[in-house]
What does this fold into?
Amino acid sequence: MDVLEISKKILHEGPICDNCLGRQFAKLSTGLSNRERGQALKLALVLEGDRIYKTENDDSLLKELAPCSVFARKALGVEGEDEQCWVCLDQFKKLDEWADEAVKALEGLEYSTFLVGTKVSGLLSENEEMLWAETGTAYAEQLKTELNREVGKRIAEKVQKDVGFENPDITITLDLAKNKLELQLRSVYILGRYRKLIRGIPQTRWPCRKCKGKGCERCNFTGKQYQESVDELIKGPVVEAFQATDTAFHGSGREDIDALMLGSGRPFVVEAKSPVKRSTDLEELMRNINEKAAGKVEVREFSFTGKDMIETLKSSKADKTYKLKVTFKEPVSEEKLKSSLEALSGIEISQQTPIRVVHRRADLVRKRHVHSIKLDELTDEGYAYITVNCEGGLYVKELISGDDGRTKPSLSELLGIPALVEDLDVVNVDI
It folds into this structure.
């Protein structure tokens, strides 16, 4: 079936606007808009109808075109308003309205790129599917694709910003069913390192175990298991700097609540959600965080990054270095301690998920390497200060205690004396 025959078949379905007719042939003849294609098709049909009328005195084709073609009405000498397009319900008459509403919504926001998306109503989807069922989709594009493009062009011209098809700063969604416009502001991501200088605070927010964050007497109606976290100490200045609605914290692993994070610090990404601003002085932001979290948390090495950095941090098996303060149930000689540590250095450790975390993690046996472990000092009081450099994911406390045989080998097993980590500090995360 040729293009004009398909067009005639489409016109049998009812009044159709130039955009919707032309869109059925969007993949033909580049350089034309769908509106221009539709106009050209209607004009070609009117010319053919006029030829038939003049040669055969048959004006049936002109009458068929009259409800949806100004050309046909003029040929017949008929005046009147266009009938509503049955496919799009005259959405293409609202392009400027959508663009103006979007421009107003974008006022005051900092952005470089945007992208328009459309949620079509069930009725519009059904209309389009009915049309395709009758005429086929070999040359067609979707209604929402054309709306996205046409509204996007108008917005770009008004705001003098670029359309960004990959990672746009702002996504503008036209909800045709609700007749409203929504904005989605892409998060800003900052890569940095943090040092945790006190014990007793977690890395991220913990909802109260009893009320699950709703607030109860146990948590003093805060909804929190711990009143502070590294995440929350960083959050305030970031929200303020970007005028964001909230933040999300993404760390390269985490230290225990009772552990310090020292040395060069642990890599992390802080995500500023729905930011009004997308740029700020990162040096000043670091100063603000460090002043407000003084003595508790310190941040450094801030730089802007992308969302993909989160996956890099989460999937990396960064080597880590720990400083341990170890106690023993019985006195131990320095010679025996050094010998046992040497036996652990450079070997693979088999660890079943520790008892202390098995309630929230899969009970598996994991293999991890100890690169080196050495004694720094054995005090007269019987404390041992030990440095461990190991593969990420090794449970260091259990490397010392043995966790009732769930970690093999362990320092306790080699010594034949129960040993426990009293204090643990992370001094380096190598990523």
